[in-house]
From TrEMBL:
Renumbered residue ranges of the record's region Disordered: 29-138
InterPro entries named among the record's database cross-references: CBM5/12 (IPR003610), CBM_sf_5/12 (IPR036573), DM9_repeat (IPR006616)
Database matches in CDD domains: ChiA1_BD
Protein's UniProt name: Chitin-binding type-3 domain-containing protein
GO process terms (BP): carbohydrate metabolic process
SMART domains: DM9 (SM00696)
Record-linked Pfam families: CBM_5_12, DM9
Gly residues composition bias: residue spans: 47-97
Annotated TM spans: none
Entry keyword annotation includes Nucleotide-binding: no
GO cellular component: extracellular region
Amino acid sequence: MTYWQPGTQYNLNDVVEYEGSRYKIIQAHRSQSDWTPPNTPALWGRMSGGSGGHGGHGQGHGQGQGQGHGQSHGQGQGQGYGNNQGQGYGNNQGQGYGNNQSEQQQPQQQYNYGNEKPQVEPTKEEQKKDWRDLDDDRKKQLAVGGGLLAGAAAIAGGYFAFKEHEKSEEEKKAQTWALQNWIKDAEDRTRQFKQNGPQGPCTWVLTQDKNIPSGAIVGGEERGAKLYICRAFYDGAIIPGKAAEGMKLGGVLGYRDEEIQVPKYEVLIGDMRALRWVQAHGRVDLRNLGARPVEGGRENDGTPLYIAQAPHKGATHPGKASEKLDGAYIPYGGGEKRVDNYQVLCYA
């Protein structure tokens, strides 16, 4: 039997023992010291203890039915976390685990995942705040009640990342919080764009893999292939980069002299008749630029990042520039290249 430990990646179907009880995972995540199985029912389902009884019908993510045998183990059809009448958990293989309650008993808490909402959700006002600005009691409620699971699932799924070995537990939570708030904003922007069309000269639209949306702004070209302007969340920052069908995962960012491949990112859609490229050198000087730049993202310290395009080895690459960077930085060749003379995307 595997014993639960902090700092461990747990995936669907994993089973652990903690303080004499067995727990089966509900939501893939990386464990933290204060996310023990008994304190995070949104992440773990208890499998042992209690009285016998039948596992009843399980309704959750995937329309599962569990017919229980004995105390806990049952056969399931489909997927799901059953939570109505002494039921169990159905996993991807259709196996069920009764929750050791009789048919007449009702569980005290219900947690639904997939497309359903966690028990504790952040409010719109909270989503606008930094994690560190939230009340300590509220942060604990969100952490154990599912309020961070959207970000944790995105990280576990490989869509986003941060340099985990460099972070404290509180910093990891802060970045997970920032990530899921950005994802929600990106999804809302994309939904509004699809429903109502463009509301200005340019709009960020969320996409995945190598699917470049129609109307994407060309930010450069290499060997005859167009390079589009993208951005994504990484290590607490929202970083402009480049995207193309020929990229390994679709999007590419430059960060701390590394080239980061990203499968989920935003692409800038717009009308170049309302935009223009403005020549710049060294650090962006907003007073002398002569136009208002399109903001492409921000560093993890809050510094705005602008969209740049810069020449390099016979090609032109999209990248980033700011009032702190000594030139434009473009992702290239596994790292980043600094270019002194470049152009910044501005409103016309």
